[in-house]
Design a protein that fits this description.
single chain, mainly alpha, 177 residues
Length: 177
């Protein structure tokens, strides 16, 4: 939440800096509200509510319905937020290394403060392959499946790569010692 709120605050600052001066005030306010809502949609704490909203709009989805279109926008943004595994594996791996470096730096900081970090943020405990399998199965694939129900054309673009990524991590899992 702090990161998403920071992004929303930065977007607000940028959007109110004068770049929308030619836009009517009521439209500006709507843009600001929608931008904040879209950014906060990427917060994992909102995942369940967005998945529920997708189920509610799926039968009879219409891009002409403003509320349904907002749900679609949130799903697209959430998919973009977790789309690293849609990239070629070598590129996804480089980004994952950067993410883990960030996580482990936080874990190291927590350890230095006497706090036990969660496993994924503890470089000595993290099992990257299992973490990625869980991330894909529990968050990424369900989110993209929701996107496919609203925009079926995206399935052809991303499904095989996501499944390939999942198989990559499954093959890489180390047997228990």
């Amino acid at each position: 939440s702090p990161l998403e709120n920071h992004h929303a605050a930065c977007a607000h600052t940028l959007l109110t800096s004068g770049i929308m001066s030619a836009v009517d005030d009521d439209v500006q306010q709507q843009i600001l509200a929608d931008t904040r809502e879209f950014i906060l949609a990427t917060d994992l704490s909102n995942h369940g509510a967005i998945m529920k909203a997708v189920k509610e709009v799926t039968p009879g989805f219409s891009s002409c319905d403003e509320e349904q279109l907002l749900v679609l926008c949130k799903v697209v943004l959430k998919c973009a937020d977790v789309s690293n595994e849609c990239r070629p594996q070598a590129i996804a791996d480089r980004w994952l290394d950067k993410l883990n470096t960030e996580f482990w730096a936080q874990g190291d900081q927590e350890k230095s403060e006497g706090v036990t970090p969660i496993a994924m943020m503890d470089r000595d405990m993290a099992d990257i392959d299992l973490q990625q399998i869980g991330f894909l199965n529990n968050l990424v694939l369900p989110m993209f499946t929701a996107l496919y129900t609203l925009l079926p054309g995206f399935k052809e673009l991303t499904s095989a790569t996501l499944q390939g990524s999942l198989e990559h991590y499954r093959r890489s899992v180390k047997p228990p010692v």
